[in-house]
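Final report, closing paragraph on structural work. Over the funding period we assembled a curated collection of sequence-structure pairs, and we close with a single example.
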Amino acid sequence: MSGRGPGAAGIASAPEPRAAGTVTAPGPGAAATVTAPGRGAAATVTDPGPGATDTMPDPGPRATDTMPDPGPRATDTMPGPVHDHDPAAAARSRVAATDWTALAAELDTHGCALTPPLLDPAQCRAIADLYEDTTLFRSTVDMARHRFGSGQYRYFSHELPAPVAALRAALYPRLLPIARDWAARLGRPAPWPESLEDWIEQCHAAGQAKSSQILLRYESGDWNALHRDLFGDLVFPLQVVIGLDTQGTDYTGGEFLLVEQRPRAQSRGTVTVLPRGHGLVFTTRDRPVRSSRGWSAAPVRHGVSTVRSGLRHSLGLVFHDA
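Its predicted structure, as stored:
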């Protein structure tokens, strides 16, 4: 997802090195992992060195996509019944179809995990088509202009389309126990209340008052540099990106990239093809990993590999405002 850059009000994210490049997943629905060099290792993802920053202009998140094959939890069949006349009920039904215990375990292992379908194909197309209606958005960011990659994304205003608002509201209470568990392992405070509305009010009181929900569009040759979506002191540690197009049909390339900085070791990369309508849950800033001293925070950045052909849209859901 995206939310960074010089001169953007409300962005509180320290610059870090970042890498860019093209990674090709082995095929639709498949995932590949690049590990640090060692005995038998074939490839390495390393930090590129100084000169890169971690955040984008005009505070707000960016969407990207990653992770291993969804497996038995993530099928292409929508759970039923689907209450299309009631976006909130439909969102709750689809979110409830996820095995959240298994998803939490996958997050612990990889730092990201796929959900079953959260949107059907018609909803994916309808949301992607919203990109042309500029009245729905508070700002548009050209990534090439700010050297954050290539492509464009738009931040929704607070008046979110009903399916977008419903999914964000349905996902928050499912992600909250994972967020609190991670905070406990790292010995950090867990300031997130039971209600998303109460949490957003805290963000606004702290000066983070801009909507951070984002719609991204990549054309052939576009890509998203490694970054983190940090816009102030208040951060929810998990976010979700939803694929709105089909890789291999609507576009090629454009895999979701996740790079984890490991303690006293080279970075580890994970690549995921994001199926249309599925959500990818991933860490916003860092995640707990076991170390010789108990638990350590491993910094994580995300991005999107170069789109080789076609048009790729994704929807980014962030649970703190900018």
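The longest helix spans residues 162-186. The domain at 31-317 is CATH 2.60.120.620 (Jelly Rolls). We thank the funder for supporting this effort.
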